[in-house]
Amino acid sequence: MLKYFAAFEVFFEENLSKLFLHFKSYSLTPDIYLMDWIFTLYSKSLPLDLACRVWDVFCRDGEEFLFRTGLGILRLYEDILLQMDFIHIAQFLTKLPEDITSEKLFSCIAAIQMQNSTKKWTQVFASVMKDIKEGEKNSSPALKS
């Protein structure tokens, strides 16, 4: 999951730089909210009708859409989240407002660009995986001897 979080943060910073810096200032990392969202496919944090729409698109588009959805949620509530501190952000993101509309959410999801410079989600994720594997090789005691 840490590899997914690292790739997510690349697009978080690219799409929502102000909110990204706000989260960083509180050391609020994606594992605090994103793990719950992804593991439950948003069924715990979104109203069921919205979660079902997310599932439909996830089945069609694949895992990238789950991360686009996360960024779409952050975009939708960016102004509110920028006014909150760590504990209130964590609480808010655990259970999102029930009055969230599919039109607003999917509009925010559509506005998310899953391309960093010239790399798409799959390329960024592959790059993160490669960097981590090379780091593991370089730090492995067995390989140093």
UniProtKB/TrEMBL annotation:
Transmembrane segments: none annotated. One of its GO terms (molecular function) is GTPase activator activity. It comes from the Eukaryota. GO terms for biological process: vesicle-mediated transport. InterPro entries: Rab-GAP-TBC_dom, Rab-GAP_TBC_sf, Rab_GAP_TBC_domain. Pfam families: RabGAP-TBC (PF00566). Gene3D superfamilies: Ypt/Rab-GAP domain of gyp1p, domain 3 (1.10.472.80). GO terms for cellular component: cytoplasmic vesicle; vacuole. Residues 1-62 form the Rab-GAP TBC domain. PROSITE patterns: TBC_RABGAP (PS50086). This is Rab-GAP TBC domain-containing protein. It comes from Chinchilla lanigera.
